[in-house]
Amino acid sequence: MPEKVYLVDQPAYDTREIRAKVRRVFEQSAFNPRARSVLVKPSFVYPARAPKNLGVITQPELIAGVAGALKDLGARRVMVAEDSLLGPSEVAFVASGVLPHLRGLAEPLYLKKVERIKVTVRGPRVQEEFLVPKPWLDADLFVSLPKIKVNMYAQVTLSVKNNLGLLLQEDRLLHHHYDLQKKIADLYKVRPPDFVIADAVVAGEAQGPMMAEPVHLGVLLAGKNGPAVDAVACHLMGFDPLEIEHLRYVAEDGLGPIDLEEIELENGHLLQERKRRLRRPRVNLDDFPSDIHFHVGTELACGPGCVGMIRNSLDPWQKYGRLKSLAGFHFIVGKPVENLPADLPANRTIVFGDCAAPHRLRGTFLPGCPVTPLALTFSLARKGKMAPLETSLLDIGRGYLRHGLSRRREAQR
Q1: In which domain, by residue range, is 363 found?
Q2: 239 φ, ψ to 5°?
Q3: Does residue 399 sit within a domain?
């Protein structure tokens, strides 16, 4: 029997309307959360408030609509689980503006705080063990709410990729290089979602995941099988699902179909009406001004790893027209890096990642495989070069305050 994927016309982020439509989809698909605990996983990869985040994160109104539909159908407990790259997990919930939308519907689950357990994957391609949140495995049901967008590291961000956000940063970065697509497929086997509702009311194109630009598509995709939903999302975005390595892997593992011939579409006309070819992200570094110098390895320089991390860090400078302040900087990445100038200015040279370690004495060395996402941003800040932020500094501060207050309450118990 083919897997069914629902396409739902949803022109705007209207919580009440989304709640009613999602409830109807749950009922039609015989998805029953009554008396059960449900963990909901949106995507807050770079949280900020609308309109800046429209193409980047799962929108709060959608999360609230789904949580409301789950409560309407008798869910005993609804948890919204996420983390933040910008400090404690609370920052993501504050900066996204989601907390007021959850009142009376769901509780936030701050992933940096929860207990973690080690799990083993059978037949791994690259990673056999993962340290995952215990509440994720304990929940009766798992609902994934990805934002549909392009991704410079993994081609697309959809439900299979969305599981990666359940890992702590140090665990997420393991194999975050040429093996990333295999890692994503391995992690998906730990626990596929019981239901997926993908946010393409506004999708994201160009420099995703962090700097994705909004594209209004006005549709939700939903279904019980993640690879099937993701395959339909690929067609909506102008991708062939077979282009996406991690989708090929999970299909080969028998976790779901990615061929439209094996998928039943509800309201399939919406796919034809709304699909468009979303702009792919640039991952190489050849479109920056010539007075910013990149010395790139000839044999190994990973787009899903260090090259992507550099690109991701410098994209905001490009977006806001601030690259002139980085004139004269040199970035060394990958291996082997040959023909380096003898007179590199040490205070304006950044040696990026473990592959470039032989040149660590030529400037500021940032270790890692890959280097952590914000390491370059912080390094430039220490040199007096402050990156433009999409996220409000006030929201970041409020997130830290919420984190501090919760720690105090826990200590007083």
Answers
A1: 293-382
A2: -105, 150
A3: no
